[in-house]
Design goal:
The chain has helices at residues 7-24, 28-33, 47-50, 60-95, 101-131, 142-150, 154-176, 184-212, 217-253, 259-282, 285-292, 297-307. The chain is an all-alpha fold. It has one domain (38-331): Ribonucleotide Reductase, subunit A. Helix 7 (154-176) packs across helix 10. The chain is globular.
Amino acid sequence: MTHNTTPGAATERYARVIEVSKRVRWEIERDVFRGRRLDYSKTFLPSGLSLVGELGFMSAPDKRLLSQVQGRTYAYIFGLVERFIAAKALDLGRAHAFGDQTALQAIVRMSDEEIRHQEMFRRLEATMAADMPAGYVQTADPDAVAQVVLSKSDWAVIALTLDIELFTQAHYRASIEPDGNLSELWKDVFLFHWKEEAHHATLDELELAREDAKLTKAARDAAVGDLIDLVVAVDGILQAQARADADYFVAIVGTPFTGAQREQIADTVLKAYRWQYIVSGVMEPRFQKNLFALVDEEQAARIHNALAPLTYAVPRQPEVPLPLAACHPLHGHPAPPAGRDATS
């Protein structure tokens, strides 16, 4: 995917981001919470993301509770990743400090918005901690994760951030927004989150192209390795959190599941988390077009080989399917044309 990245064209795109950022600006209490609490008679995370529909032995109330446990983690993981996204945005802003002031303003606004998102997710967690039974565990520390992520190359961190901010949009449009059975407050949290992540993805595209233009082939090889390392690290977090969430759910649900059923619950929660945080983003056509336009055939193959073991996380029948790329490299189809001049 190619964009017009001349200085004037890039400045125009940064300016459009600022305009949208001002237009959709919201406040946590005034616009989102509005004095409301979560409705536990309703679902939190829709089944197209939670995959609870694959657990045929569970009752509807049990599936609803599992959606609420997953919905709690959904907010926690977003708050966790936004710790490093905000920090990286501050770094990227410094690169524009003595140059394009429009770009600087756009990225500073993004930093402020990401910090506000973290505050919103902390407030949501405090609400759920007060309402739900004790025993829920957050398995990764946001600051420790941020330090690991930020030790990697800018190219890899921006690519991962673009992936996250694109799947945020896809999840909301395809699964959260159409579902009329979700807790209204939980749904609104992710409505307002989506409104700002949409223009953050544009900044990610601009910054990824700007960073890529600096790289030699050897540096890009190393950056691809960093991106793969980050995906592996994310998967490690998901494995630990999925096991903790499955154990928590089984402890509080009150239904006597067999050992085999408990393992199926754990396996399905991990599958759901890999689908939510890795596979659904990689499958987004916009992400593929941006990423695979920057790498050569060998580098694309390395990414493919690293991600292939996770493709089992594609749901059998998602409630509302996320769009698939016409040429999806994870499913044996040709990748979009590789190379720096690709224009798929």
